Amino acid sequence: MTFSMTGFAALEQPLKNATLVLELRAVNSRYLDVHFKLDETLRAFEPVIRELIGANLSRGKIECKVNLMQRKQANQTSQLDEQLMQQLAAMQTKTLAFFPQSRPLSVADVLHWPGVVLNDELSRDSLIDDVKKLLLRGLQDLNASRAREGEKLKRLILDRLAQIELLVAKVKPLLPALNKEYQAKLEQKLNETLKTIDQERIAQELVLFAQRIDVDEELGRLSAHVSEVKRILNSDAPAGKRLDFLMQELNREANTLGSKSVSVQTTQVSMELKVLIEQMREQIQNLE
């Protein structure tokens, strides 16, 4: 299946006295580039979240946002982490010794410090399990979104490949007649200009020139590259980087066809091929 690197997923997971909110955004990037916007309570879970994302995605710039929205109940009592508060007090004493003009921590500062206020209903172990479950669901939704977008890009690329095949099929039968016509014109001009030159030598030079302008090999390679692009699009492996390389090869053959052109028809075909290849290349930048 062909995956786009563009996708979006947003999910919520109700917990006891809280709600987990997840948002995943993905855009194209050469490598896997993950950025986090995590709730202070969840920052310690970043390595686990990063590992799960890396196991499910191979390329793209990923923004992962996870928030924990806690709901206070009337009969719910909060506890304080006394050990953490002792550590904060010790750090404040040392800091004020070096910076006596600094403002001491207020009660509000202490209460808002991550981890000071404990909620018995949300243990670390259960919370990390909930985060992992929600993230896996989010990654499934994200991949489904990327798959839908990837199928659209695949259809667009296959349409351009079909147009390339039509151009090759159109120009290939014309080449022998076009080359003969050009060779006849060239021979006539040579005979008019160089009447004293050996005719056998002229014939030899014309044969060599005809070989140099022969583009049958380039058209054959174009067809082979088109077949390879189709094969990669229908495989399950990530296709973006390999397809990007093939676009370079297709463009090389189209340029060679244009440089060897001896007629308006082949020049036009070369230009149309390059337009189609560039259209495909732009879309392939978004494929995983």
List keywords for this structure.
four-stranded mixed sheet; alpha+beta; Ribosomal Protein S5, domain 2; 288 residues; 9 helices; two-stranded antiparallel ribbon
Task: Write the topology of this structure.
Blueprint: E1 7-15, E2 18-27, E3 32-38, H1 46-56, E4 60-70, E5 79-80, H2 82-98, H3 107-111, E6 117-118, H4 124-171, H5 175-193, H6 199-212, H7 216-233, H8 240-259, H9 264-284
Parallel strand pairs: 3-4
Antiparallel strand pairs: 1-2, 2-4, 5-6
Helix pairs in contact: 1-4, 4-7, 4-9, 5-6, 7-8, 8-9
How do the helices and strands follow one another from N- to C-terminus?
A: EEEHEEHHEHHHHHH
Total number of beta strands: 6
Largest sheet: 4 strands, mixed
Proportion of strand residues: 5-15%
Number of domains: 3
What this model shows, in words?
The chain is of the alpha+beta class and 288 residues long. It has 3 domains: 92 residues, 2-Layer Sandwich (Ribosomal Protein S5, domain 2); 33 residues, no CATH class; 137 residues, no CATH class. It contains 9 helices and 6 strands; from the N terminus they run βββαββααβαααααα. A 4-stranded mixed β-sheet has the order 1-2-4-3, with helices on one face. Helix 7 packs antiparallel against helix 8. The model has no long low-confidence stretch (mean pLDDT 82).
